[in-house]
Amino acid sequence: MQIGIVGAGAMGSGIAQVAAQNGHRVVIVDNHRAALEKSKAGHQKILARLVEKGRLAEGEDHKIASRISYDSSLTELEGCGLVIEAIIEKLDIKQALFKHLEEVCGADAILASNTSSLSIASIAAACEKPERVLGIHFFNPAPLMPLVEIIPAITSDEAVVNKAKSLIDDWGKVTVLAKDTPGFIVNRVARPFYGEAVRIYEEGVADIATIDWALSSLGGFRMGPFTLMDFIGHDVNYAVTESVFTAFFYDPRYKPNFSQKRLVEAGLLGRKTGRGFYDYRDGAVQPEPNKNEELGQSIVNRVLAMLINEASDALHLGIASAKDIDLAMTKGVNYPKGLLAWADEIGLDTVLATLDGLYDEYREDRYRASVLLRRKVAKGEQFF
Predict the structure, then answer these.
(1) From edge to edge, which strands make up the β-sheet containing 82-85?
(2) What confidence tens digit (pLDDT) does each residue in 241-288 have?
(3) Chain centroid to CA 122: how far?
(4) Catalytic residue among 24, 43, 137, 234
(5) Which GO terms describe its molecular function (predicted)?
(6) Most buried by CB count within 10 Å: which residue of 5, 93, 233, 267?
(7) How far apart are the first and last CA of the chain?
């Protein structure tokens, strides 16, 4: 099967590399010639490096690179069995593209969006045959991150979904099925990791270095939330938060924060601009954390309770199975443990007590406990 990729940015190029390394001929289409040239040069450099590291056999890089072609015309996608869109996160632009793709591609071609938070149903609505449209959400960088969320729209044909999932499984990826709701699994469940950490900072409970130290050293997360937001880029991370908040009809659990909004407005986007929550410029002095373990553990307990609550609600609302929720968080964002299994380990009554304590103190709907969590505690049950 020939694979088509629309969008030659980091994500599109990464997906193309994965497909080509799995033996497919790949066509990357982008209307910016410079983006195509950058993608091609990037592939050659990355594949050559894999040969140097012994991860590819000598000459294999050239074979893989030869399977990828680069073009500015969508008509080149005509013979593709699967086309994955990886362009700007603007619904109207995606809808126009999918309408065009349907005119160009064969009747049996599967059309997929790599969107991280937009409605698949809305994208599919632009097509005459919405049943062949679904979400296939890779994580960046696509060649390295194992997780792929498979998101059927309410109009997606089950056979199409199964075929797409089977193909991505064959590429060696870990696939999870997610309901077509804002943020799917990962970008929904992970919101408190950022939002609650910023709330703790804004309240003056602890500074950013202390919060990052607590969640990485005591909590076991690979990166603290402020380091991670700086790494992702505040333009990207804040846009997802704002999108999820709006899409959930302004549910206070997903409310954006002014600290990150001001960084975006000032153009302080994190590592890529040299400044974000931290200063990455030459000679900058980094803040030292307060390594008080009692303070640190209270931070971990608060953020973790909010994450578990979100995972519990996702399960309660049928967003995904318990297994897939935990798999998504460990394989998609490298959490040290699946959140639902972690809750079982801590004790659901302990998690509920933390949430109820926060709600009693703040009286904000942000801290309402998931009804599923409350029911399980009442029945003495666990998630697994």
Answers:
(1) 68-71, 26-29, 3-6, 82-85, 110-113, 133-138, 147-152, 174-177
(2) 998 899 999 999 999 999 999 999 999 999 999 999 999 999 999 999
(3) 19
(4) 137
(5) 3-hydroxybutyryl-CoA dehydrogenase activity; NAD+ binding
(6) 5
(7) 39
Q: Which of 149, 196, 237, 309 is catalytic?
A: 149
Strand, helix or coil for residue 176 = strand
Residue 117 has what pLDDT? Answer: 80
Q: What domains, with CATH codes, occur in the chain?
A: 2-177 (3.40.50.720), 185-383 (1.10.1040.50)
Q: State the DSSP H helix or E strand holding residue 69, giving kind and residue range, or none if neither.
A: strand 68-71
The answer to whether residue 89 is catalytic is no
Q: From the candidates 13, 116, 216, 243, give the one annotated as an active-site residue.
A: 116
- Cβ count near 185 (within 10 Å): 27
- C-alpha to C-alpha distance for 122 and 144, rounded to whole angstroms: 30
State the pLDDT at residue 156. 98
Catalytic annotation present for 334: no
pLDDT at residue 201, rounded to an integer: 98
pTM of the model: 0.94
- 3-class SS of residue 68: strand
Query: Is 187 one of the annotated active-site residues of the chain?
Result: yes
Q: Decide: helix, strand or coil at residue 225.
A: helix
What is the spatial distance between Cα 276 and Cα 315, in angstroms, rounded to a whole number? 34
Count the neighbouring beta carbons within 10 Å of the beta carbon of residue 292: 13
Residue 221 confidence (pLDDT): 97
pLDDT under 50: residue ranges of the chain: none
**Which one is catalytic: 39, 114, 117, 187?**
187
